[in-house]
Amino acid sequence: MSLPLSVAKMPRAILFDWDNTLVESWGTIGEAMNRTLVAMGQRPWSQSEVETRVRASLRDSFPELFGQRWKDAEQIFYRAFSEIHLEHLLPLPGAERLLTEATAKGMYLAVVSNKRGEFLRREARHLGWSQYFAVLAGAGDAKQDKPAPDHVRLALGETMEPNPDVWFVGDTDIDMECATASGCLPVLLRAQPPSDGEFGRHAPLLYFPNCAALTSALSNGQFPRLNAM
Q1: Residue 61 belongs to what domain range?
Q2: How confident is the model at residue 229 (pLDDT cuts 50, 70, 90)?
Q3: Ramachandran angles phi, psi of 43, nearest 5°
Q4: Is the C or the N end of the chain the one with fewer CB within 10 Å?
Q5: Structural domain includes residue 228
Q6: 107 and 186 in one domain?
Q7: Whose CA is closest to 152, among 128, 119, 174?
Q8: pLDDT of res. 28
Q9: What distance in Å separates the CA atoms of residue 203 and residue 229, rounded to the nearest whole number?
């Protein structure tokens, strides 16, 4: 099934994932995760394992990983993360231009991230990006974290209800799941195009390989249709 032309129109609002959608974070996440795993007596993960396994927020994923000691692991992770995250923080190429273009078009912008809210907002301030976003919704800010619709409703505030005029832009399966669960338009932003059947019932409806491609699409109003995965 192809995306109907009526769906591929200029968005009123864009909700962005943060890590590896707008900023490069895998190295920082991997180092903090492996410090935690070693401290908890587990083997460290390869970088490919980090990129495959890190999806949900800590409060959703750590109980399964560390059982009753998950709170201890959480403290270790956040202590390690807080030491290094600003030092290694890098915007992805073209990310700020994308935000500038969307802002110039009068779009409502917000972030829905499973990074803890205080770290998310600290990183946005560090980059000088707070000005672009109406809401920076991180893990722990809503009753439930992404992929729960609560997180999307918090990011949209009183402005609007989730609907296909709201794009949810992210790089992982949990982003596409959150988009479809909340009624937003799922947009995949990453170098690798989606593979056949990769996202199951939560397939993206639009795909862009990088921030520059999405910026160009917003500039000219051309949104290429993506065949269902």
Answers
A1: 26-84
A2: very low
A3: -75, 145
A4: N
A5: no
A6: yes
A7: 174
A8: 81
A9: 6
